[in-house]
Amino acid sequence: MIKFFLMVNKQGQTRLSKYYEHVEINKRTLLETEVIKSCLSRSNEQCSFIEYKDFKLIYRQYAALFIVVAVNDTENEMAIYEFIHNFVEVLDEYFSRVVSLMSKMQSVLFSSASFTRNWITLGLSRSYVNIEL
Amino acid sequence: MPAVSKGDGMRGLAVFISDIRNCKSKEAEIKRINKELANIRSKFKGDKALDGYSKKKYVCKLLFIFLLGHDIDFGHMEAVNLLSSNKYTEKQIGYLFISVLVNSNSELIRLINNAIKNDLASRNPTFMCLALHCIANVGSREMGEAFAADIPRILVAGDSMDSVKQSAALCLLRLYKASPDLVPMGEWTARVVHLLNDQHMGVVTAAVSLITCLCKKNPDDFKTCISLAVSRLSRIVSSASTDLQDYTYYFVPAPWLSVKLLRLLQCYPPPEDAAVKGRLVECLETVLNKAQEPPKSKKVQHSNAKNAVLFETISLVIHYDSEPNLLVRACNQLGQFLQHRETNLRYLALESMCTLASSEFSHEAVKTHIDTVINALKTERDVSVRQRAADLLYAMCDRSNAKQIVSEMLRYLETADYAIREEIVLKVAILAEKYAVDYSWYVDTILNLIRIAGDYVSEEVWYRVLQIVTNRDDVQGYAAKTVFEALQAPACHENMVKVGGYILGEFGNLIAGDPRSSPPVQFSLLHSKFHLCSVATRALLLSTYIKFINLFPETKATIQGVLRAGSQLRNADVELQQRAVEYLTLSSVASTDVLATVLEEMPPFPERESSILAKLKRKKGPGAASALDEGRRDPSSNDINGGMDPTPSTVSTPSPSADLLGLRAAPPPATPAAPAANLLVDVFSDGPVQPSAGPTPEETFLSELEPPAPESPMALLADPAPAADPGPENIGPPIPEADELLNKFVCKNSGVLFENQLLQIGVKSEFRQNLGRMYLFYGNKTSVQFQNFSPTVVHPGDLQTQLAVQTKRVAAQVDGGAQVQQVLNIECLRDFLTPPLLSVRFRYGGTPQSLTLKLPVTLNKFFQPTEMAAQDFFQRWKQLSLPLQEAQKIFKANHPMDAEVTKAKLLGFGSALLDNVDPNPENFVGAGIIQTKALQVGCLLRLEPNAQAQMYRLTLRTSKEPVSRHLCELLAQQF
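ok -> structure tokens follow
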């Protein structure tokens, strides 16, 4: 089961977050900082799965953007790992290879609401989703 | 999904966004935003009615401003207005605003719900989907209450469009996860199962997720999904790689759906129907075969998706654990992955193989990979992969390879990462004990452990080696010799000194014949370490010295000299001082006979399961409490030792603040000091030396509970004015985890009830008949004083007439790092179903904090166990045969099914366990009486585990119907 979904940049700023279990807002910041710290400290030789507290983080890096999914221990790691890529491909298709979404900010913002298949809605903390593919 | 067209863009919004982007400073940004807010406000307030487009544009701007981190206090009404627009883009923005800025303003909620209702009834699939997404995204209880009944109808309606069904299934899943009680089960469940046959793969995917969640609660209602899932899986697996169009991912047909179907099947035992089972086995074989075929694409996406399905297939094979052929094939497949160049695959292969190792069919096959795994332990660059390798070695270990594995793990320990050392130490200790053929090997291994990683050797480990050495006389001489040699190292770990001190104190005589280890040599060796050690170790060594006086009278003068030294007799530490004084007096006053009796060799420890195992289980959640679900860790972890194991499971926590309560810090009984001190009381019963060592917290606690105590619970209960009961209306609802925290305490009486960054609440309680006393310990984890600290107990509903709880006031200030204690006296007047609430309020740094928990007082605490013969049991069982007197529950095991753990839990629950009653020895039968002031309720229970299905059936019969049901609910959550 997916517990939360994060898009974080290399500077550690959260770009998008979606929680599937209730976490208090003030705890989220701390959690996200710790999560991104553990992802940033990994090298390419290491696997994409991190055991973190009592759940697992599965992450992929796209240029300066990390996508991190936290799951419980019954989840299939490989399926989630590839799901992240599928998600990115869908975004790419949908927004036709956007690098800087300045002008298309609204599209990202508003279409993600109807982004039915993956249930990602907004939890943007600041500015826009910056996807560099 | 409607595509985003360029013409739809709102120019004003784009300009505003780029203005913000161009702002050079934070101040400029705020200025620009304030200007915009003023503009929007005036537009909304203006006389001119705004058209839909403008409304949408301004609501968008507000949303953007909100996402930038500014508060928005208007515009909600305009957003709600947009909901009733007929234009998709306007409606969508309205819903988006509502989903992001949910406001519990009751007026608006009613309007929003109304708009949603209209859209749900609109028969326009796009609008219906928008409404469903909004419900799911908000996911609040109010939303659930308003729509939980409608959504199943939309889901199974014949005329719903595919996209609507898909959204409805996921929406229902979300509501069910948020508040399961709101989703009514009914005739629609059978039709949901049939969605597995749906033409549309998206609907099937959503339905599988929903069913997987629902069937956990009611496995029987959804049993028909097995055959449907198998046939769906079979169609996917055997389809050509392009059949499924959109749902083919890099030539793999519907990988995520396959994974979900395989996961659903893992909720059930293997299919009973031979045809279904045959078809399923065929599927599983096909997946395993495909793994051997050349890939259809060189792209990594192809192999990742394929492997995801493969790993889930292997999980199902392991779950069934009944097809030797498939298990061995799975093992071989994983064996190939062990040497794959992709780290992810190596990691997953090691992880999966770990579960395979525990199956009798594949254990041998797993063992053939030992060299690869050992190599992984040595060469992997990723610590998490190495850890998996260590786990696998632990799982595949048996008598035949124990020596090899233990020595490899010891070698690994020297370079292992700090994070996993303690776990490795525990594992080595367990394997060494479990597979020890000769105990000298065991002693060597443990001493090596202490030498290599002394800091990580927890007390359980060295207690255990002492227990084993004490209990086995064939190894005592060897242990004394080895430990003596180990102590000669110039720098040896303090744990080594402890083990050495204890063993030489007990068995030093066995090596005293050798002049190289004569008594004075032994003593001076130990004493050379004395000054470098901590107080606890020095205390232990003092006990060793007094034992030496008995074992070796020739050392008496030297040791008395040491004890008499000012540094001992006037030691600042009261424990050391006391020991020095008492031992010195003992050695000079008592005759040789008395000395020999008092200081006799320790008797063998009662045989019991290693407490190290329990410790290892506890280790599983290595971090402190998780941010997501604090305190939700395996509730069995503490129970195992609960009240059963006399060894205190002293956890060596690195930070002292982690254990403010001292709940786990009773002195180790394994050291000779404790019994010796008790005996001293007799020896000097009229002497001047008062053994003021102070009873352990446990002893004080129990003695206070004795009924004739001056301050008996009854006396307190008679107090007519219950102090400061604010009444239920003044306190907030219990925190979301309250039920789970309560569940942890159903079968045990002490532990940490609650913990966050500020506060830790510990509980200790004792119940006798219908009375109980509870101690609550409030620990301030911060360095700042809590003010106006006031914990109160509240009785919701008519609990007042069922349970009397008398609290004592506590100090209103709690200093940083300090702990206060509150005593509660409890009397059960009659049977009750809901526990009292504990409301804690205080001010921390000026901010008021409040917290409501459920007090761990459940009806079963007033259980009195009753022993009876099989005949009596059956007779009473039959007497309680009215349908209402019985409550039964069939449920899936949430924890590993271990008979010992189950026994411990049932005893902790309070009933007596009756042996030789049930003809099936696997089953548990218990009996007891619930004691309340008004009445007594007899209770019989029976628990039937089914290890194969990982299910339990629990039956309770009592003379009172609500009691049966309530106890059944309580107990069922424990397994």
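The radius of gyration of chain A is 14 Å.
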